[in-house]
Amino acid sequence: MCPTDGMTVPLLTVQNALGHVRDVESMVTAYLASDPYAVVEHHDVKPGWKLIGIKFQTDLPPEIYLRTADAIGNLRDALDGMVCSLVRAQNPTLSLGQVGFPFAGDKKKFNSERIQLKIRKIFPEARDAINQLKPYGGGNDALYAINELANLKKHRGVFIPMMMGEGIAAFPRDKSLKIGDTDGFPLGAEYLSETDSVVIWAAPITSKVNFEGHISATIAFGQPEVLKMRALVPTLYELCNLVHQIIVAFKSRFIDEG
């Protein structure tokens, strides 16, 4: 997407992303109101342990994945469109081939000729300003997460969801995490195939410590790593706001003041 009318189209694209996020918010609210999980207690699954877990009763509606994908795609497009607008502002006759917002896995890759080529045609000051945003792994994590989510969209449907509770998180069917050996603690968590539930708390059976947590569940990111355990809807709003602020700032500095 390479608009020619200032920053109008990139800003409208962010507004479109916000519309998708509002849809996600409504669907998440409805899903959680449907009691999609139950809290269960186990005394006979792991010898010597008492376990509290979440048993998922219904799957996350696919529409939540789709709307999240739409929102992320819009944000990625808006950033690309901003760079195209900066090129047009400098010289409307320049080709927009290989133009786009640069992302990279780390600083070294970001500074490579291949990545920097995407912003070569814009004002040197604007190029420096984009570089200062640090849209790479280990730089601006929130901005970099947009690209990570866009990449997940191509391969696995945008994001891996998880349930989050008040001080407790449970990853659906994550079989890699194990119960430890302390005297009562929240877990992050272990999937038990025997019960088709996710353990969120455990203590030795002889312990006087009892589970007292109140689970107020929401949907959170399980991936990408930079967003892990962050609530889905508030994070999407934050990403929309971030992109909007970036575009407005570049519009003011490099288009309006032209």
Give your account of this protein's structure.
The chain is of the alpha+beta class and 258 residues long. The protein has one domain. Helix content is 44%, strand content 16%. It contains 7 helices and 7 strands; from the N terminus they run αββαααααβββββα. The strands form 2 sheets. Strands 1-2-6-5 form a 4-stranded antiparallel sheet, with no helix packed on it. Strands 4-3-7 form a 3-stranded antiparallel sheet, with no helix packed on it. Strand 3 and strand 4 (168-170) form a beta hairpin. The longest helix has 29 residues, at 62-90. The two termini are 22 Å apart. Residues 165-188 have low confidence and may be disordered.
Q: How is the topology of this model organized?
A:
Layout: H1 8-33, E1 37-42, E2 49-56, H2 62-90, H3 107-110, H4 113-116, H5 124-132, H6 141-156, E3 161-165, E4 168-170, E5 185-192, E6 197-204, E7 218-221, H7 232-256
Antiparallel strand pairs: 1-2, 2-6, 3-4, 3-7, 5-6
Helix pairs in contact: 1-2, 1-7, 2-6, 2-7
Concise description?
This protein is of the alpha+beta class and 258 residues long. The chain has seven helices and seven strands.
- How big a fraction of the residues is strand? 15-25%
Q: Helical region count?
A: 7
Sheet with the most strands, sense and barrel status: 4 strands, antiparallel
Write down the overall mean pLDDT: 81
Q: What best-fitting shape do the alpha-carbon axes yield? A: elongated
Q: Tell me roughly what share of residues is in helical segments.
A: 40-55%
Strand order of the largest sheet: 1-2-6-5
- Beta strands, count: 7
CA(first)-CA(last) distance:
22 Å
Return the structural class.
alpha+beta
Low-confidence stretches: 165-188
- What's the structural domain tally? 1
Oligomer: single chain
- Structural Rg: 22 Å
Give me the strand/helix succession: HEEHHHHHEEEEEH
